[in-house]
Amino acid sequence: xxxxxxxxxxxxxxxxxxxxxxxxxxxxxxxxxxxxxxxxxxxxxxxxxxxxxxxxxxxxxxxxxxxxxxxxxxxxxxxxxxxxxxxxxxxxxxxxxxxxxxxxxxxxxxxxxxxxxxxxxxxxxxxxxxxxxxxxxxxxxxxxxxxxxxxxxxxxxxxxxxxxxxxxxxxxxxxxxxxxxxxxxxxxxxxxxxxxxxxxxxxxxxxxxxxxxxxxxxxxxxxxxxxxxxxxxxxxxxxxxxxxxxxxxxxxxxxxxxxxxxxxxxxxxxxxxxxxxxxxxxxxxxxxxxxx
Amino acid sequence: xxxxxxxxxxxxxxxxxxxxxxxxxxxxxxxxxxxxxxxxxxxxxxxxxxxxxxxxxxxxxxxxxxxxxxxxxxxxxxxxxxxxxxxxxxxxxxxxxxxxxxxxxxxxxxxxxxxxxxxxxxxxxxxxxxxxxxxxxxxxxxxxxxxxxxxxxxxxxxxxxxxxxxxxxxxxxxxxxxxxxxxxxxxxxxxxxxxxxxxxxxxxxxxxxxxxxxxxxxxxxxxxxxxxxxxxxxxxxxxxxxxxxxxxxxxxxxxxxxxxxxxxxxxxxxxxxxxxxxxxxxxxxxxxxxxx
Lengths: 292, 292
Description:
Chain A is mainly α. In chain A, 72% of the residues lie in helices and 1% in strands.
């Protein structure tokens, strides 16, 4: 799909430009903190969340400029969760996107502050853009969304993993919180930036929910099947520490089938936007078919 | 000063009610996370920052109800910085407000998430109240404000402490960032909640800056003179780890004189609000004369 590749490429360029604009320069005092924030953010990420903001905004007829602050905001929020996740107190990961993690390079204390500051900058950037965006993202990112999912994930670690209804319910809660909440909000933010109707915002939220759940199912699959070179991080860690993953509960085949089902659900919503939904459709395909 | 005591008491009651309203209930899933957030927030704090929001709002003729979300927001923001500060990766403190710190009770990983979630909830609560409050607080709380001051503080640890111009400049930057930025923003948020003019918001900002700097000078003094019972946390730690404090650079007597000077500056601004500034005046006095 040449369109997907060129869309993803332009989304990365626009996301990086928006982040460059949103982040304090590397020589702003305290310089080490701002260098470390930039180290974490400019690490060759796929920029999937900003790409979803952009695609959703375009699908609603909004301009690329209108959604630039939201593109930067979702990536800063995502990056802060990664920086904190990688801390020795959390997952204790030394490798992320093929490079030493933030705390390995800058120390644990600065890495805590880098994550904190990226979250604050995310809301400062969104607030400057105005409208209901701050409320939308804060709701998704908080203790009943992203952070709640991480806590559920922590608590599930080491517990019995089987295909019982309790395990399945917990898994779904983890996936909805940890991953889908922010991907859903990215799509909603794009629609909000385009000043779409509440109905359209909700429709894009449903697209994001399906795409977000698919994203996490694929992450679970890749953790068991991909190499460290493909992932740029240590694979197999989830299984090794007894994490509750889609593959552990349902098996590899059912996981793949579920990802395909969610992709089809997302694609159907994207198609309802006609030609304007082409980038959304590309993204839904990319999320499920990526190898890293 | 009986007025000061009764004002502080009513401010604590209003702050606690606003926090009760803003925080998810303790049985909301994931329950451990929400219990831990409440453990950190409801720990018998002095609620100085919400009290400043309230006093500034009243000075500008605003209602107590108008500033309730901002009162909750500044305290959640302040609490998140304490929870992260106390982490083993940061200051490694086991005692806060006379109780075991959040990470001691709930573990390091959950304490990271508690701090993250309190920051998110802070912006969600402020966003629901509308207006320019999110931008005001995010600017104060970010890498060029509170978090920047903490990074400066980290980097100063163990460096040479003397009365050179470089040390003095660094000390002022730490105090402005680490402490004064949020106290200043608390006063500005109270004025914004009362829909005060930009000039009045700026005047209350100057009040908050003076009060905030005084607050940190007094903190530095108390760290060398108070007992663990008075403070509810371990005293002498700053001096022990070679932190850059006002007392270390200027000595105890000059520190006391500077606190008095800043108090007088704040009181003069409070007096310019006439009878409406009485609570602000009380707070400026309390900040400088407190023994804990």
